[in-house]
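Deviation from plan, reported transparently: arabinose-5-phosphate complex.
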Amino acid sequence: MIERDILKQTAAAAAAELVADGMLVGLGTGSTATFAIRRLGERFRDGLRFTGVPTSLASAELARSFGIPLIEMPGSTPIDLTIDGADEIGEADLGLIKGMGGALLREKIVAVSSHRLVIVADETKLLPRLGGRAPIPVEVVSFGWESTRGRLAALGCRPVLKRDAQGEPFRTDGGNLIMNCKFTALSDPAAIERALAMVVGVVESGLFLGLATTALVASRAGVRRIDRDRPPRADG
Ligand code: A5P
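Because the crystal trials were delayed, the predicted structure below was used instead.
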């Protein structure tokens, strides 16, 4: 295994230890979250009992392969804890860019419904502030997507349609498209999140602000834990 994967696995294993019997657990998507689901699968086989809420069809399939019971999304019961990865983490307030794996919509629905959102990552994802090094993935409906792209570009970013391994437009689990929007600077992420939400044709953006409560970031020195209080959200 390459060193970066070992670090992802180390962070993911630390997060899996936070799960206790009887919990409702959000299961993230992406390579780091996959390590967490695998570790949780091992713990399930060792007798830990919990129910998973998967954020993608791929994560559901993996969890099911370990026999973990799943529900799609609870109506009013909050999820105790969600473990997910991120493309960029701002250390100052645990603001996140997520969604390069294409599952941001379900991830965000699960995140806002979770008491605790634990982000697992290797150290390359951590920046002092959310810096816009990663583009912001934005899920858009496919109807009229080129006109939506134009409205996104008018916000001052460079939107690029995400494609799959065959070069075809990537489809999310919900059948939508993803535009990766590179902003030159992210001086006010909250203003950008609001502006993206206002664009006609946009379903959701990969800016996750005020949602993460803990980051577990692995480096050669070990796993660093960063905790933040979660500010109240109007939609949370
Ligand atoms: C999936 O849609 C994403 O939000 C992932 O959580 C994010 O892209 C991080 O993925 P990796 O753990 O594969 O880097």
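The first helix runs from residue 3 to 16. We consider this an acceptable substitute for the interim report.
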